[in-house]
Specification:
Strand order of the largest sheet of chain B: 1-2
Largest sheet of chain A: none
Mean pLDDT of chain A: 89
Radius of gyration of chain B: 21 Å
Structural class of chain B: mainly alpha
Oligomer: heterodimer
Largest sheet of chain B: 2 strands, antiparallel
Distance between the termini of chain B: 62 Å
Order of helices and strands of chain A: HHH
Mean pLDDT of chain B: 82
Helix content of chain A: over 70%
Radius of gyration of chain A: 16 Å
Low-confidence stretches of chain A: none
Largest interface: A-B, 31 and 38 residues
Number of helices of chain A: 3
Distance between the termini of chain A: 35 Å
Shape of chain B: flat
Low-confidence stretches of chain B: 253-257
Structural class of chain A: mainly alpha
Strand content of chain A: under 5%
Number of helices of chain B: 8
Shape of chain A: flat
Amino acid sequence: MRFISNFVRFWYDFIVGDDWVVAVGVVVALAMSALLAHNDIAAWWVMPVAVVLLLMASLWRATAKS
Amino acid sequence: MTTSAVVLVLAAFLASAVEAVEALTVVLAVGVTRGWRSPLIGAAAATLALAAVIAIFGPALALIPLNLLRVVVGTLLLIFGLQWLRKAILRASGYKALRDEAALYEREIAEARVAGTAMRAGMDWHAFTLAFKGVFLEGLEVAFIVLTFGTTQGSIPLAALGAGLALALVAIVGAIVHRPLSRVPENTMKFSVGLMLSTFGIFWSGEGAGVEWPGQDLAILGILVFLTLVSLAFVAGLHRLHVARVAPAAGAVGIGE
């Protein structure tokens, strides 16, 4: 049981890291891009803008803690 | 060589160099304190284990449909890249202490000295495990980057070339100096790798999701420049904020003294 929890924790830390909000935000932004693209609406701007906003939010959370 | 191929080799090189320096610090500290045989065997075993991971997952990745692969790999690279970038920005702006390989080396040495020696079958298993863990865990990130970059870009050998050059360079320098490579500008390298991983992550995940990039592959350069400028602006802004927060606190201490 402990092995499984350690295994899950390792991969969570490896992939998601310190801020889960970034991971969730990236998935949401990608879903939004796919939705726009499949409706023939220009979607190229969504990911860059989302990344800047997510980075800003993550940095804000990190600096607020310190 | 195309622009994306150059960026591919460079990203694999820089990411591998950063991780190799960290792994080298562990192996050197264990080797200096407990002898070289067991940690070197541990490091070699970890390298073989990583090669096995690449051999197993490399061909498997090639079987996944390209668009699905781009979405999954792009998303993972982006999340991964933003972690690197976030830490590098916090370090560059003064909010997080810079990694000090010399201090880490001293700490590893102290820990290795305190640990008892469990000799079995002519091997110091504590030294073996420390070296194996250090090399395997740091190498896993390199393997991930090489595999995902290589597969999505259609050239694992090119990504492996970048990684191989970095590992060879760090190993040679490590063997010559026998000290942790504390002069490597690690944060600058991490900053660059974070930018590249995030750039490719945005491009590939978007492409996999059906986004049509203006200028097609040239958009990679556009995203890279945009992210670099934004990240540098974050560093400058946070640095000013940090200085403004620290100065009154330092002043208050001064007045109190």
